[in-house]
Amino acid sequence: MWHKFDTNLTQVVKADELTSNFGTPDCKQFRRHVFSVLSPIAGDLAMRYAKISEQHDFEKANQELLNIHDSLCIHDLNLCADGDKLYDAAKKLAKKCSNAREHKKTAEDAYQACSRIVQHYRITPPEWKAEKLEPALNRMCCPTWWHRKIQVLRLRTIETMSRNIELVTRCRSVYASDYAVNIKRKQKEKQREYLESTFIGNEVGDQFSLQELSDRSVSNPAIRRAELMVRIKGFEMVADHVGHVGEFYTLTTPSRMHACLHTGATNPRYDGTTPLQAHEYLTHLWSLIRAELHRRDIRPYGFRVVEPHHDGTPHWHFLFFMPEEHCKTVREVMQFYALLDNGNEPGALKHRFKAEAIDRAKGSAVGYIAKYIAKNIDGHALEQDLYGNDAQKAAERITAWANIWGIRQFQQIGGPSVTVWRQLRKLGHTDDNELEPIRKFATASDWAAFMLAMGGPAIPIRQHPIKPLYDYSRTLNPETGEIISVQRNRYEDNASKRAVGVVFNGKSFDARIHFWVVLTGNSEGMTSRSEARAARASCRAGAVNLGPVSITVPVTIHHEKLAHEQRIIH
Predict the structure, then answer these.
(1) What are the tens digits of pLDDT across the range 467-477?
(2) DSSP string computed for 169-188
(3) pLDDT tens-place string over residues 214-243
């Protein structure tokens, strides 16, 4: 069934003009309706329609256009609607679930009724467990939960469609569609507005905007890039210290997972695999490789970087360090598993697995991987990407791609816990004579010394001497003034603990110094949590929840430099 929605008339008129020479009067009426419903992408759809009509016939073009309409219009939910309309839809669907819940006698029956509504819109219901029925029902009756799910469904459905009709290629929109990138850009803008207008304060009167804190955390691309480079440099220094060599590997997927050829044309072997499914394939492949290497007592260490091909299909890069005598075995194992899936197809031996030894005479391993780190974060110190695009703009598209598909771009392989490293950097001076030197290594950004103090690069994490300390978030009881742990979340489910310090020799070191609450703007008084939630609601259409803030912040901020620093935990 078709549905009527507000349209962008300019886009629709241009789309009509572009396709006016194809089909019958009924075809024109059909196209006009689809272009009106999907007006934000009407121009792209019209170009595709014209191409299919010219290469094949208008009947084939009609069928493809109908399939696109049906994929983006799920009953009364139009995934091309703007943010406000999507949130209105989320409220209606949450209300629909609430009504269904009220008319059922048992939680089990209510769960089944609400799950049918959720699945009706191609969304996976919350996990079914007897002890989690109420939290699951609370989620399905919550507009915020629905809105988040719809946002993910929207972007991934549109990206899948865009890849299928050649919109995501080096010739059109590299890495991700323009439509999706624009959505992510607007979300970031709204998020920044929210962070700049939201302040937190502590018991001694310090106040900071969330944007100030975000700028001083790994949310800041420059800091994220710098931390990664510090850790990679530390790995290389330790490798040099123990006489290990560096290797650079690349793993790619079978050709059937690539939507487009290198030229930008449709890949005739493409089987509809999404970037997330391709990433899951590589993740499984790596788990097999790692298990086989461990069986042979080989534990390479370093970093993995995930980046997209021009059509959004992911591939993995590895920078590994290991004893030189292990290199041949590691290469053989990785190539064997890389070729398990249709390894005899043309080009498989050449492209599935590539290996290159790091030649120290030509430069360091850090210099070798620096361009891959920068390319996938902010394009720092780069002019162009592989396809000749501006490096900064390409980086924006790559980060949007990773965010859309939920792909972790960087992962450390081996070595000590970065969570412990970050918690030690927040921890002030300790009186523990064994812990204090390690803490100083972390605060001095000496990853190599920190790694050696933690036992070296290749020992299992369970053998590390320092482990993260996890605890619940804390809040203030407005009636009693008591600081209490938050052990239940908004859905009455068990809250997740988070890292708040370290554990060493059986002793806990809590890095939390102050208690922080959200203020309604840069004001003197502190708000209640209900007031804070009301403030956050104003930005829900585009803002992204960053979670708890726990970083180093300045006590006094000057225009030119930071006068003094103090650790902040809430």
Answers:
(1) 999 999 988 77
(2) STTSSSSS-HHHHHHHHHHH
(3) 999 999 999 999 999 999 999 999 999 999
The DSSP annotation for 187-208 comes to: HHHHHHHHHHH-EEEETT--EE
CA distance 482 to 470: 21
The answer to whether residues 110 and 100 touch, using CB atoms and an 8 Å cutoff, is: yes
- Residue 134: CB atoms within 10 Å: 14
Residues 71-91 have a mean pLDDT of 96
Q: Any bridge partners for residue 207, and if so which?
A: 201
Quote the CA–CA distance of 354 and 331 in Å, as a whole number: 9
498-504/466-471 β-pairing: antiparallel
The fraction of the chain above a pLDDT of 70, given in percent, is 89
Distances (CA, A) of 60 to 52, 53, 73, 298, 483: 7, 7, 20, 54, 65
Average pLDDT over residues 330-349: 98
What are the strands, taking DSSP E only, across 71-160? Answer: 73-74, 77-78
Domains delineated in the chain: 83-155 (no CATH), 198-217+466-567 (no CATH), 221-413 (3.30.70)
Task: Return d(Cα 164, Cα 167) in angstroms, integer.
Answer: 8
Distance CA 190, CA 264 (A): 34
Return the DSSP state at 528. Answer: P
Q: DSSP characters for 210-262? A: HHHHHHTSTTSHHHHHHHHHHHHHHHHHHHHHHT-EEEEEEE---GGG-SB-T
φ, ψ of residue 547 in degrees (nearest 5): 80, -170
Catalytic residues: 368, 372
> 106, 51, 44: which is closest to 80 by C-alpha?
44
Over residues 502-512, the mean pLDDT reads 97
The Cα angle at residue 544 between residues 542 and 546, in degrees rounded to 5: 160
As a whole number of angstroms, the distance between CA 83 and CA 440 comes to 47
Question: Which of 432, 415, 321 has its CA nearest to residue 366?
Answer: 321
User: 99 in helix, strand or coil?
Assistant: helix
Rounded Cα gap, residues 324 and 322, in angstroms: 6
SS3 at position 272: coil
Query: Is 520's pLDDT higher than 90?
Result: no
Which pTM was predicted? 0.89
